[in-house]
């Protein structure tokens, strides 16, 4: 017998590879068909030019390995990426300097006092690191040079599994409405980073004496000791959902001053639209955006947890007691 609460739930079949290219010519995509067509024309042109000098069987023996290589590159895939794009990315990676340092003024040569033998042993000089953005504005907008401007925000999560079928359907519909309203490039990034609970444990110890009841003070100190033990004995990880709204650069001659305002407007629109899905979108200002970029470039640096999102110390301890209580 079906559950009446879940009667309004609708399902849709989604392919496992939603970014798969459309088939244009038979089983081939437009990119594969163009690659094969160009290869066939080149081989046919070679045959047309060499036919007065080569026997057809000799020419076929020469071009069969070349045709096989072209076919493998056009139709092959590696780790979900077309093989031609994978090879181009491999060439770009091989040509990219592996040692880069933060040197806006460029990296100069070694001083003359360094012996030649030591300079050769040091290897190739490091290259200057070029970040994809010029800087972060006080409002938290990133200047991406020719790619426009981007605004950052953090998103809260929703406990989806504990909802009824009708509630899940409502949340999904609200999120779908926001996706369908997007007109500019938008990214949802789920990042995992290390956290440090030592500041939170220290704050609990300091504020425990201000609690209105001795039992709460005892519970606060016990919970602080538990957090300190977790901080010293385990490698703690946390997840963060980051929303990036990018405003493309306008055409030449158009004003660029409004790009930052439009990027921030995209964040505000997402906040209003995702509120129906019970998702809180919090825009990041300049220092917060800079801190987020710095931590993304240094993933081994743990982030400190200093509070519980604005709640008081007593409500935090009561919530911790309710969560840890066996009843």
Automatic annotation (TrEMBL):
Keyword annotations from UniProtKB, A to Z: Membrane, Transmembrane, Transmembrane helix
Recorded superkingdom: Bacteria
Positions of transmembrane segments: 33-50, 56-75
Protein name, per record: PrgI family protein
Organism for this UniProt entry: Streptomyces tabacisoli
């Amino acid at each position: 017998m079906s559950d009446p609460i879940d009667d309004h739930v609708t399902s849709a079949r989604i392919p496992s590879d939603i970014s798969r290219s459309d088939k244009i010519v038979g089983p081939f995509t437009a990119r594969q068909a163009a690659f094969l067509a160009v290869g066939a024309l080149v081989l046919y042109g070679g045959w047309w030019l060499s036919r007065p000098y080569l026997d057809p069987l000799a020419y076929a023996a020469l071009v069969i390995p070349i045709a096989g290589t072209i076919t493998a590159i056009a139709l092959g895939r590696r780790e979900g990426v077309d093989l031609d794009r994978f090879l181009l990315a491999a060439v770009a990676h091989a040509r990219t300097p592996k040692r880069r340092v933060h040197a806006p003024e460029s990296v100069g040569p070694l001083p003359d006092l360094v012996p030649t033998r030591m300079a050769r042993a040091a290897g190739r000089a490091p290259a200057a690191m070029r970040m994809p953005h010029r800087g972060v504005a006080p409002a938290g907008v990133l200047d991406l040079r020719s790619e426009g401007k981007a605004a950052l925000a953090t998103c809260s999560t929703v406990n989806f599994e504990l909802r009824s079928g009708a509630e899940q359907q409502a949340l999904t519909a609200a999120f779908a409405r926001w996706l369908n309203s997007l007109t500019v490039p938008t990214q949802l990034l789920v990042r995992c980073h290390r956290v440090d609970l030592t500041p939170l444990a220290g704050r609990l110890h300091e504020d425990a004496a201000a609690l209105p009841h001795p039992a709460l003070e005892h519970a606060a100190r016990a919970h602080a000791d538990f957090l300190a033990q977790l901080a010293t004995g385990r490698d703690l990880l946390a997840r963060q959902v980051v929303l990036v709204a990018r405003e493309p650069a306008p055409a030449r001659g158009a004003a660029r001053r409004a790009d930052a305002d439009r990027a921030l407007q995209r964040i505000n629109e997402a906040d209003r639209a995702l509120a129906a899905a019970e998702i809180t979108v919090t825009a990041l200002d300049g220092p917060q955006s800079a801190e987020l970029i710095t931590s993304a470039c240094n993933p081994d640096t743990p982030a400190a947890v200093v509070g519980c999102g604005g709640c008081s110390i007593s409500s935090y301890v009561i919530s911790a007691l309710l969560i840890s209580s066996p009843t």
